[in-house]
Amino acid sequence: MKLKVLICSVISVFFFSNCQEKHKEDSIKANYLDFSKRDDQLTGGIKMIPIKTPKGTFKVWTKTVGNNPKIKVLLLHGGPGLTHELYECFDGYFPNESIEYIYYDQLGSYYSDQPNDNSLWTNERFVEEVEQVRKSLGCDNTNFYILGQSWGGILAMEYALKYQKNLKGLIISNMMASAPAYNKYAEEVLGPKLPKAVFDQIKTFEKNKDYTNPKYTELLFKYYYTEHILRMPVDQWPESINRAFKHINSNVYVYMQGPSEFGITGNASLKNWDVTAKLKTISVPTLVIGAKYDTMDPKHMEWMSKEVQNGRFLLCPNGSHLSQYDDPTTYFPGVIKFLKDVDNGEFKKA
Q: What is the set of active-site residues?
């Protein structure tokens, strides 16, 4: 009799806890698009957040989509100097999962203030900017996730290395942990895969610093971009991507990344950036996303997922640098599963 009562009690507790969890999920879904209790209802989620810098206070543009007190994902765009528009395809995936996400143009990018001062374009200052954005949005380690792609991945790693205590989860998308390793991969692996005559022409343009030559651009788009940036014919590239490239701040991009598409070169400030030795200090749950045809070495990114303390690797077999667009059937399920696993306390490292 006692055993029967005990079994009934265990079943009741299990059933009750499951019902509570289901009620919470239903409540989040029901209130996902309710802006009535928010201070950004009139602007549809848009906030211009003031950012203090050594050169004064400026404003950065953010837009929050949805309400979820448990999962809030800040999207760090690439470039540097590109825009949140690189992530607009997330609208087709995250809302259906009731995931709150925040579009964000970093200082210097199109929708934010664009001060003309190169001393502002440092990793350390961008990290402090992200921290100020977090505080302004009211996120903390019970709900705050960062997803950074390309340069945004560099910024995500740098933020985690200083402020991981404020994170619930970290997603590093399509970015290696070392600029020199990225340069080597571009020069020794990707470049030689191009037709020799094409690669020779590209290197000649770069040697002569003739980066604005229309022929240089034409060769890159025809032979490199459609293989390793976004694997679609250029005339089929999504409008959001074309808009992002149209809005690029070339000054920020060239100062930090350099003018070449084969690695970070010249006097670019990121040329010697390398945090491979520091990855082991990152303990927050981490998803590293690589792609077979990426400009970044997927094997290096798989290594990164094992170097951090609690990492998982996602390979997009049909993807390139913008794998959210050319391999969404792998990218989004993998990202969503990571977010849900961490949120539910079910995350297991690879």
A: 150, 294, 321
